[in-house]
Amino acid sequence: MYTPTKERIAELKAEHGDIYLITVEDKAAIFKTPPRKAMSYSMIIAQKDPLKSNEHLLKEAFVEGDKELIESDAYFLGAQAQTAKLLKAKESKLEKL
């Protein structure tokens, strides 16, 4: 199983900003927040194929680790459950003036 060192985590944070470790049984990988362009494309394909949308997001967000999380069906199905948590947004509010 992929296990990043504290030093490697620090390097990846410096390069990618917030990063996340997703673990599925005996496999693990680091993911970053996917870019807006990837999110936009995923929203389009999600209308017809939500699973394909999650696959696209995970591939775009993958940084390093066990590639089985995005290549093996069983591991992918476990990892894709975490996809929504990769999509971060700032809090907003709407105020009628």
Overview of the structural elements:
Helix content is 51%, strand content 16%. It is built from six helices and three strands, in the order αββααβααα. It has a three-stranded antiparallel sheet. Helix 2 packs antiparallel against helix 3. 23% of the residues are buried.
Quick structural gist:
The chain contains six helices and three strands; from the N terminus they run H-E-E-H-H-E-H-H-H.
Shape: globular
- Give me the strand/helix succession: HEEHHEHHH
The major pleated sheet works out as:
3 strands, antiparallel
* Secondary-structure content class: alpha+beta
The mean pLDDT is 92
Distance between the termini: 54 Å
Number of helices, where a helix is a run of at least 4 consecutive DSSP H or I residues: 6
Strand content: 15-25%
Helix content: 40-55%
**Low-confidence parts:** none
- For the biggest β-sheet, the strand order reads 1-2-3
The Cα radius of gyration reads 15 Å
Overall strand count: 3
Q: Could you give the topology of this structure?
A:
Layout (H helix, E strand, L loop, with lengths): L5 H11 L2 E6 L2 E6 L3 H11 L3 H12 E4 L2 H4 L1 H7 L3 H4 L11
Antiparallel strand pairs: 1-2, 2-3
